[in-house]
């Protein structure tokens, strides 16, 4: 594995919104910044998120008369005993300024929706709008070479490849099977998505969290920030007197980074780490009772911060943001997680427990619903509930991943995701829920729902509930009796959507991002956003550490006018190239089982290199040949090829007995002539 030392001012670990915001600010102040991202994609969980940010005190809220006192009252009502005045002050002081700065000095733009109710509309100080904002739709071609480096959408969340924008699109998609106008709207979106995907591998219009990350990454490229994917940070380095000096990196950019000002840990949370879940989450004592759609949240933040004195902050209202999910397992065993961030507040859907009883307001926020679900399952080995729908609701809205009419249900039933029965009794028996309990629940719920009321949980009683329902449904956007068979059920599990905080033991970090930096008597710290610093130019060049050949381009990189934007991987193979070609040949060890186990990682690693335009072709030797593989690379230099080969999981796990890399000059044959003009 190559081992090199690179210098910069600031090293940021993680390329989600937290890391990129820190990187953008530092780079805009003239500091040279490296963002190290362990995945092949940029954007983290943020890129698959809804992309809404709760930023009270923003310009829309202020214009509507929202006051600091009301905001504090609201936060106090939610945080209860965990209210920390100093942290709330810092948050409220700095967040509006940070949002203004992002909009003014970077490509980031937000939408300020007319309707974005607080999650707890019944709490004192709550507001129906003026606090939550969302990322503005963006054309991903603005990313140029980086377009396909951005993390794609969460596939369960897309509708045939299109990601409906939270807000305006949702209503249209909800009614596409009921109104010609909505059908036309949705068809147009889908046709555009499919055409762009066929021609350019991914649709251009990016929505929700993906749009936020497109905007951040495009700004980062303009500022010359080096964004290193497939580069996990494995250790933070300190001098003898405890000053952070840099970090050790693995993967494509394996080596050491010396960071003059410090290291920002923005590596997400630990919801994918069973051991940490078992340690910190009372409801998952064995680390086997949890699903998460988050990406890269493997607890590296905890492990990197611990040797520096970092600790997990347990003095919080809840250790994470909970959400119910349904888990779909395909016929070939592939697992897909559908987060129910709208909970189940649509008319005609309810959630019940093993006794057939409702245990929460289904139109409350996913976090509140998740908490209620955990509470209801105390003492059980598995945390789950069932979502029940009658045929009206199933045909109109579907249940999560199981789409509504006219999409056939056969596949969802065959995989065991969706249960269907002619009567309530039969459904209860099929899913193992108490028959009398479920019948009683439906009788009670239906009596209220017919009048637009829910005496048990007050579902559908405020703007937030309605926001999660179907606004066109009368008399209440959240309520409809379940009275028309057949009846349907899907099992709902429990998940996290947001990371847990890790704090320096004695530090003053003010967000879920931890900054470790040099001691006060060494170099000056990276400035936090401030009125004066915000005015800094965004075209400032990095002060040290020139980008490597696989870095992102700095400002002024020529933009291709090609249809798909400037992406080297889209250069058709017959177009001429000035870069050298390399032949790579692997000889494998006899560990076939090991290769089988790690093949998905190996393939995604090589695919990422292909997406970056490095690999033109790759594949194994045919059966009967000595086990191995061959690849053709096109790269600026041999080191770029070595970096990819060294980080290949087949190699890091020891399945490659030997390999060679040979620069190659194609001369004869139609491909050689077309590709390079038959170099001689
Ligand atoms: C489906 C879904 C919808 C959501 N919707 C919303 C919403 O609308 N509003 C909201 O506020 N929140 C939402 N959330 C939660 C929100 O997405 C996260 O809280 C947020 O994105 C976290 O940002 P981050 O930058 O801290 O982490 P991330 O965006 O996850 O970035 C962390 C990055 O660090 C990388 N990393 C980890 N370890 C290392 C290492 N050792 N070296 C290098 N890189 C490393 C990871 O690969 C990852 O890319 C949603 C979550 C989900 C799953």
UniProtKB/TrEMBL annotation:
Low complexity bias (residue ranges)? 504-521, 529-558
Q: Which UniProt keywords apply?
A: FAD, Flavoprotein, Oxidoreductase
Domain FAD-dependent oxidoreductase 2 FAD-binding per the UniProt entry, residue ranges: 9-491
Single GO MF descriptor: steroid dehydrogenase activity, acting on the CH-CH group of donors
Domain (YCII-related) ranges: 581-664
Q: Where is the signal peptide?
A: none
Q: Where is this region: Disordered?
A: 499-572
Report the domain of life of the source organism.
Answer: Bacteria
GO BP: steroid metabolic process
The entry sums up its family as follows:
Belongs to the YciI family.
PANTHER family per the UniProt record, alphabetical: 3-OXOSTEROID 1-DEHYDROGENASE (PTHR43400:SF10), FUMARATE REDUCTASE (PTHR43400)
- Record protein name field: Possible dehydrogenase
Species, as recorded: Rhodococcus jostii (strain RHA1)
């Amino acid at each position: 594995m190559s081992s090199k030392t690179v210098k910069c001012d600031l090293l940021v670990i993680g390329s989600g919104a937290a890391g990129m915001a820190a990187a953008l600010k530092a780079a805009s102040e003239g500091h040279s910044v490296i963002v190290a991202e362990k995945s092949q994609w940029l954007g983290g969980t943020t890129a698959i998120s809804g992309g809404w940010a709760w930023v009270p005190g923003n310009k829309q809220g202020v214009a509507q008369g929202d006051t600091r006192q009301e905001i504090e009252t609201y936060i106090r009502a939610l945080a209860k005993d965990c209210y920390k005045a100093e942290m709330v002050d810092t948050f409220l002081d700095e967040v509006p300024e940070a949002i203004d700065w992002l909009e003014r000095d970077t490509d980031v733009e937000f939408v300020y929706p007319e309707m974005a109710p607080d999650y707890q509309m019944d709490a004192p100080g709550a507001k129906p709008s003026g606090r939550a904002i969302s990322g503005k739709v963006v054309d991903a071609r603005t990313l140029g070479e980086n377009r396909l480096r951005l993390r794609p959408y969460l596939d369960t969340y897309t509708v045939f490849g299109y990601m409906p924008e939270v807000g305006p699109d949702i209503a249209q998609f909800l009614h596409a099977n009921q109104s010609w106008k909505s059908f036309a709207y949705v068809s147009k979106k889908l046709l555009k998505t499919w055409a762009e995907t066929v021609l350019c591998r991914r649709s251009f219009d990016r929505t929700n969290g993906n749009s936020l990350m497109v905007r951040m990454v495009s700004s980062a490229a303009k500022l010359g920030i080096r964004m290193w994917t497939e580069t996990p940070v494995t250790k933070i380095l300190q001098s003898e007197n405890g000053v952070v000096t840099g970090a050790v990196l693995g993967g494509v950019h394996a080596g050491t980074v010396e960071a003059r000002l410090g290291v920002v840990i923005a590596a997400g949370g630990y919801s994918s780490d069973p051991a940490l879940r078992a340690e910190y989450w009372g409801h998952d004592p064995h680390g086997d009772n949890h699903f998460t759609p988050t990406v890269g949240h493997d607890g590296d933040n905890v492990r990197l911060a611990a040797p520096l004195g970092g600790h997990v902050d347990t003095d919080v209202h809840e250790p994470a943001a909970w959400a119910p999910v349904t888990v779909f397992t395909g016929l070939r065993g592939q697992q897909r997680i559908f987060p129910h961030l709208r909970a189940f507040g649509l008319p005609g859907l309810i959630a019940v427990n093993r006794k057939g009883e409702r245990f929460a307001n289904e139109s409350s926020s996913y976090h509140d619903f998740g908490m209620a679900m955990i509470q209801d399952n105390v003492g059980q080995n598995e945390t789950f509930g069932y979502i029940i729908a009658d045929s009206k609701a199933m045909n109109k809205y579907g249940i999560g991943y199981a789409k509504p009419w006219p999409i056939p249900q056969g596949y969802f039933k065959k995989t065991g995701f969706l249960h269907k029965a002619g009567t309530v009794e039969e459904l209860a028996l099929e899913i193992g829920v108490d028959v009398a309990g479920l019948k009683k629940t439906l009788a009670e719920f239906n009596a209220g729902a017919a009048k637009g009321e829910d005496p048990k949980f007050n579902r559908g009683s405020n703007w937030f509930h309605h926001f999660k329902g179907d606004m066109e449904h009368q008399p209440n956007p959240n309520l409809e009796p379940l009275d028309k068979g057949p009846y349907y059920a899907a099992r709902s599990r429990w998940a996290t959507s947001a990371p847990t905080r890790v704090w320096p033991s004695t530090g003053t970090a003010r967000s879920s991002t931890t900054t470790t930096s040099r001691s006060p008597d060494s170099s000056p710290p990276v400035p936090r956003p401030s009125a004066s610093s915000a005015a800094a130019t965004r075209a400032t060049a990095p002060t040290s550490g020139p980008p490597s050949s696989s870095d992102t381009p700095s400002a002024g990189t020529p933009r291709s006018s090609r249809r798909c934007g400037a992406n080297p991987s889209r250069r058709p193979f017959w177009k001429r190239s000035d870069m050298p070609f390399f032949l790579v040949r692997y000889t494998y060890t006899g560990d076939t089982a090991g290769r089988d186990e790690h093949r998905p990682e190996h393939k995604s690693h090589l695919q990422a290199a292909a997406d970056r335009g490095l690999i033109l072709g790759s594949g194994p030797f045919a059966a009967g040949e000595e086990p191995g593989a061959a690849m053709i690379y096109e790269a600026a230099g041999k080191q770029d090829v070595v970096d990819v080969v060294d980080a290949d999981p087949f190699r890091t796990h020891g399945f490659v007995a030997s390999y060679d890399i040979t620069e190659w000059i194609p001369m004869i044959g139609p491909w050689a002539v077309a590709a390079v003009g038959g170099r001689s």
